[in-house]
Design brief:
By secondary structure, this protein is α/β, with parallel strands linked by helices. The protein folds into two domains: 133 residues, Aspartate Aminotransferase, domain 1 (Alpha-Beta Complex); 221 residues, 3-Layer(aba) Sandwich (Aspartate Aminotransferase, domain 2), CATH 3.40.640. The protein contains 14 helices and 13 strands. The protein binds 4'-deoxy-4'-aminopyridoxal-5'-phosphate (PMP). 4'-deoxy-4'-aminopyridoxal-5'-phosphate (PMP) binds next to helix 5. The site of 4'-deoxy-4'-aminopyridoxal-5'-phosphate has 13 residues, from helix 5. It catalyses: L-histidinol phosphate + 2-oxoglutarate = 3-(imidazol-4-yl)-2-oxopropyl phosphate + L-glutamate.
């Protein structure tokens, strides 16, 4: 069957939209708390609204496929050259481009256990074989991953903080891996949640690029920037390598609106820092409340927590009936856990209250 590798792709399970849940359960959409997709509760930077108003009139024109202004803005922000930046339609597009460039039906890619689900989809979409390497104490096991490398392995996806676990791989471990991974393997370091880490805990990517050329560092505007709806992220890496990936890109995949909004958002460091600090304090508050209630949680470096609740899918349904949308993670082989995004204090209180009620009812 020529479709075998396609039907082996796990379907992407998006968080249910607020309106759909409101209709199904007869709830007021305004009362629903959605903590299912690690979206930002802080909206967008004020400058984004003005930037979007300016591009609106240009919707009859294709966007700049070269993303000239955005690449220059990102380059200045990260301290690299503009040709070392490749914007995409979310970092999701970069995940896919890496697989399309480096893999085929004869090749394999390493994915740590509990790695973000799109990695497997990308690998299988080109007929390649994923090699899942068990984690050690909930974080990727660097030595086990190195041991899994052979001549057929051409790609490794590694996220820190990781989704859905939230766990952080220490900087020194990432560096050890970048150094030891054979040069023929592309390392995709997924930093979708980087900005939620304290600055001193963030990987030093200049050091990583000194250690290996075959590296793409991936970031997104969907999380701390609050631009998930516009679909924009980027890869950082060697200019020639990115040119190869670019050949595989869907033309004009990053809209003019997304480009303008991303540029405006990058310039508002006050907004970003405030979001980080608020996430950190709310995450600590929610974690403490859960621990006090006897709920096991994993340490998280992201804008979400993974918590053990018993029957994850059943608890998720009960929460949804009460207007709280979180993410069951049974599809990751974690049927007793759920993932909850950190929202505004009021939203987190609604979540904690509903969870308390549901867990009591479940006994
Ligand atoms: N990587 C990780 C680890 C993620 O959690 C997500 C979003 N859930 C993505 C990549 C993709 O995000 P986007 O395409 O919106 O940039």
């Amino acid at each position: 069957n020529p479709l075998t590798h396609v039907v082996s792709i796990p379907p992407y399970p998006p968080g249910r939209p607020t309106d759909a849940v409101a209709r199904e359960f007869g709830l007021d959409p305004a009362s629903i708390v959605k903590l299912a997709s690690n979206e930002s509760p802080h909206g967008v930077a004020p400058g984004v609204i003005a930037a979007l108003a300016e591009v609106d009139a240009a919707s009859n024109i294709y966007p700049d496929f070269d993303c000239y202004d955005l690449r220059h803005a990102i380059a200045a922000d990260v301290g690299m050259a503009p040709d070392q930046v490749l914007p995409g339609a979310g970092s999701s597009e970069i995940i896919l481009l890496a697989a399309r460039a480096y893999l085929d039906g004869t090749r394999k890619a390493i994915i740590p256990q509990y790695g973000f689900q799109s990695y497997e989809g990308a690998v299988r979409s080109v007929g390649a074989t994923p090699v899942f390497v068990p984690v050690k104490d909930w974080v990727p096991d660097i030595d086990a991953m190195l041991a899994a490398v052979d001549d057929d392995v051409h790609l490794v996806y590694l996220a820190s903080p990781n989704n859905p676990t939230g766990t952080v791989l220490p900087r020194a471990e990432i560096e050890r891996f970048a150094q030891a991974l054979p040069p023929h393997v592309l390392l995709v370091l997924d930093e979708a949640y980087r900005e939620f880490l304290a600055p001193e805990d963030r990987p030093d990517i200049a050091r990583l690029f000194q250690m290996r050329r075959n590296l793409i560092v991936m970031r997104t505007f969907s999380k701390i920037h609050g631009l998930a709806g516009l679909r924009v992220g980027y890869g950082l890496g060697d200019g020639e390598l990115l040119q190869v990936l670019r050949r595989l890109q869907l033309p004009f995949s990053v809209s003019a609106q997304a480009q303008a909004a991303a540029i405006a958002s990058l310039s508002d460091s006050t907004f970003l820092e405030r979001n980080r600090v608020e996430n950190e304090s709310e995450r600590a508050r929610v974690a403490a409340a859960l621990e006090k209630a006897g709920v096991r949680i994993l340490p998280s470096g992201g804008n979400f927590l993974l918590l053990e609740v018993g029957d994850g899918p059943a608890i998720s349904r009960e929460l949804m009936r009460r207007g709280v949308i979180i993410r069951p993670v049974a599809n990751y082989g974690l049927p007793t856990w759920i993932r909850a995004t950190i929202g505004l204090p009021r939203e987190n209180d609604v979540f904690l209250g509903a969870l308390d009620e549901v867990l009591r009812a479940a006994g």
